[in-house]
Write a structure and sequence with these properties.
Blueprint lengths: L8 E10 L2 E11 L4 E5 L6 H8 L12 E4 L7 H5 L2 E4 L1 H6 L6 H7 L15 H13 L15 H13 L5 E5 L7 H16 L3 E6 L11 E6 L2 E7 H4 L2 H8 L5 E4 L2 E4 L1
Parallel strand pairs: 3-7, 3-8, 5-6, 6-7
Antiparallel strand pairs: 1-2, 1-4, 8-9, 10-11
Helix pairs in contact: 4-5, 4-6, 5-6
């Protein structure tokens, strides 16, 4: 009987402190490589700490019953890990805002940096891959433009292309539509739908219900560092649950797999 492949992400009884404050409390969850999952919660619920645990910027409290595995491993060379996960955070977007062309920023993804250094060596195949990633994000026309001359929506497209350049196993998206206008939000969400339909795994971390595209089938509600609910989108996204999560009475609208609060 074939061995079951390791989970993309597996938390077991994970607790993480930020200073003297617990940011995650006994979190247990398993996400498979090709899953499309949303982590939804208000500001301060532990979403950023969840991301930093995966990127190895925060570590769980050492306890006998606690573990955090990525693709079956607890210990990683961080540069090898970055080659397997396409990670897009607002901190990374800010770091990429520099006097560099879009093509250079995308190429930097091969080196887990945010610029191409003089000692970095890349070949024609890497340039072709970077150009293809920009094309996937409908941003190949930006290849020679400086990042400092782009709109917020254009910057997000380039940074996402950077995350795609090494063909990751999954994308980890942190509030992907922050600072984008309505048209840019629509375009970015449409591209993420295309990526999900291609079979790429997506882990979306957000406080905005509108970010949860129809291809996301599972939603995890996070509040005060704990998992409040974990299940199918239809089961978890209810007015009662969301009202309790955000602390306000809400009405919920759903149309063609898109959910909105009113």
């Amino acid at each position: 009987m074939p061995e079951h492949p390791p989970a993309l992400i597996e938390f077991r009884n994970v607790s993480i402190m930020r200073g003297e404050r617990p940011a995650l409390r006994d979190v247990s969850l398993r996400i498979e490589p090709a899953e499309h999952v949303a982590i939804l919660g208000p500001n301060g619920c532990g979403k950023s700490t969840f991301i930093k645990a995966i990127t190895r910027e925060c570590y769980p409290l050492a306890r006998p019953d606690a573990s955090l595995r990525i693709l079956g491993q607890e210990r990683w060379n961080i540069f090898e890990l970055r080659g397997l996960l396409g990670i897009i955070t607002n901190d990374l977007v800010a770091a990429c805002l520099r006097e560099a062309s879009a093509l250079e920023i995308v190429l930097s993804g091969f080196f887990s940096s945010v610029r191409v250094m003089p000692y970095h060596r890349f070949d024609t195949s890497m340039v072709q891959a970077a150009t293809a990633a920009l094309r996937t994000m409908e941003a190949d026309h930006l290849a020679s433009r400086s990042m400092t001359e782009m709109s917020s929506g254009e910057v997000h497209r380039v940074v996402t292309a950077r995350a795609l350049v090494h063909r990751p196993r999954a994308l980890l998206l942190d509030e992907p539509c922050t600072s984008l206008d309505l048209r840019a939000q629509r375009d970015v969400r449409r591209i993420f739908r295309n990526l999900a339909q291609s079979g790429l795994g997506l882990i979306l971390v957000t406080h905005d219900l509108a970010d949860i595209i129809p291809e996301i089938g599972r939603v995890i509600l996070l509040r005060n560092g704990r998992i409040e609910a974990d299940g199918s989108k239809g089961e978890v996204l209810t007015a009662d649950r969301l009202g309790a999560l955000f602390g306000i009475p809400v009405e919920l609208l759903e149309r063609d797999g898109h959910y909105h609060l009113v």
